Amino acid sequence: MKAPHLAPALAAVAITAGALGGGYLYARSIEARYVHALAPVIASGEFPVKFEGSAWQRAAFRETDLLPLYGSSELELKDPYHAANLFKDYPTGFTIFPMGKMGAGCLTALQKLTAVGSDLQGKKVVISITPPPFFRGMMPKDNYQGNFSALYASALVFSMDLGIPLKQKIAHRLLDYPKSLEKEPLTRLALHYLVEDSPLGSAIYRALMPLGQIQNLVFQLQDHWNSLVFIHSIEPGLLHDVQHKPATLDWQGLAGEAELLYRDNAYNNPFGIAKHVWEREGRRLGRQVDAYPGTILPLVRAIREMGQTISSAKEWTDLELLLQTLQELGARPLILSSPMKGAYYAYWAVPFEERRLYYDRLEKVAGEYNIPTIDFADHDGDAFFTLDAASHISSKGWIYYCKVLDAFYHAKEIDSAYALVSELPPGPGPAPAGPRDKISNYEGFHNSSGPSMIAGWAWDTINPDRAVPVDIYDGKQLLATVAADRFSEGLKKAGIGNGQHAFLYAIPQHLKDGHPHVIRVRIAGTALDLKRTPQPLTAASTVGARVPVAKKDIKAHPDGSPP
Amino acid sequence: MNLHATLQYARVLVSAPWARTVALTLYYLAILLGLILLYGRGDFSSPPFIYQGF
Lengths: 563, 54
Hints:
The complex is a heterodimer of chains A (563) and B (54). In chain A, 41% of the residues lie in helices and 14% in strands. Chain A is an alpha/beta fold and 563 residues long. Chain A has a five-stranded parallel sheet with strand order 2-1-3-4-5, with helices on both faces. Chain A has a four-stranded antiparallel sheet with strand order 6-7-11-10. In chain A, helix 1 (6-38) packs across helix 11, helix 6 (106-116) crosses helix 8 (150-157) and helix 9 crosses helix 10. By secondary structure, chain B is mainly α. Chain B starts with a helix and ends in a 15-residue tail after the last helix. Classes of the chains: A alpha/beta (563), B mainly alpha (54).
């Protein structure tokens, strides 16, 4: 009997396969066409397919003028001197392809790179890491799962490029996060048999390999399809032609410029922490500082216990697995680590002897794999290299990173990693220990100006009993420095220390000229403005009139409502 | 051409071996296309999470 359905079915399969093959080639050509335009995108939310699939990474590795940079949140934070901005117009012939998402660790990076597979052979790649995960016991599960991709996990488990022993070690780590595998039955099954050290387990794993290869193929096709959908969904204006503007970069000038810019943004604390971060963290610390060592912030606890936890942090295991992966894939990597916020750690009584455990171990581990590494330990005491306690790099830090990236991209051989950054001044070395009473976290509010008084409040959340002096300016002219030491029932009720933080200043006669003035109030001796300052003042002459000055409660409200 | 004539014409066509093969091929293609449209778009997105920064 004839099989009338067989030929049509086979023909349909052949036509579909041909169409998929054509679609695959079309998708690759589209990715190659747009990868340069999309390379500078750093926000994972703006370009999700880049951070969830491998198609764009492969496309980037195929281009000779793109340098892939893998990391974490430090790559996702905006900065005018971010390498994605500095190299945007290919001033020295290349730009970066950043792959950093908040919470990503070495375990995520190695999966992403394995998904790139053989396209990594002989290619340069930079891995950016930050110190904190290396003294936390384990990457928070949410952080790992928030960076999990079924495509990456499957690519790793069924990789033909990695050896079984390495895959077994990685599999043990992947199984530490079982929730991420709940919806991936084949990957989960293969992982279980991969770690099972028995001939049967090994046989079942090998039997699953063909299925895994099909899964990887399907995932890759889906990834390309998602890329096409993404390209067609975004505004055509985003896909501009890439500009190539050759330029000579004055690295020392840029470093000075970036530091000045950053200093202007980090003046409200002695650690060089960015103003907006300190406004948030300083308040938290201010509330917690007296509770220490009782109920303490996770941040402080992590720092204080660093000496103990650094030896057990799983991130070291993941780093070694990442380095082995890079080696087996034949990549040419460079490791970049930001330094610790030394002064801040010293403040919490973590001496340099403990901080250097991180730097020393990183150099040792990377040295074992002969991978060039720069940890910027000499910038441990540089307050303006990083912008917070998590060692996210500042504008200045980015210039150092950019210098390294530029030198690495153009280098044929790397004799000494630090030679890549030799053009820039070295850091000041370790931060010295600092006494706790030196730090402050100011908060204040300029409540009102006029008709006869300038009023507000200010306090130091870390030293709440201290009367904070404020400078009152008329434009740029200092009028007076007054202590914010008056009692206010409203402040006390609002939890602003003991309530003795209000200030009141009688407007001098010479300002009551009927002309407009601009009144600005700052924490004395700093450039830190109170909230809702400056304010306009136009006061008429009141010569001969009595100006009542409240002696008791000026009823200033911390929420900003007028007294 | 009315409906009856159209159906008659279709019957004659399908009775021809080549036409039957073409129809079956299109039938299987439609099935495959349907499967691709249903499952073609993979979801590799990570679950949303609150970054537990340091």
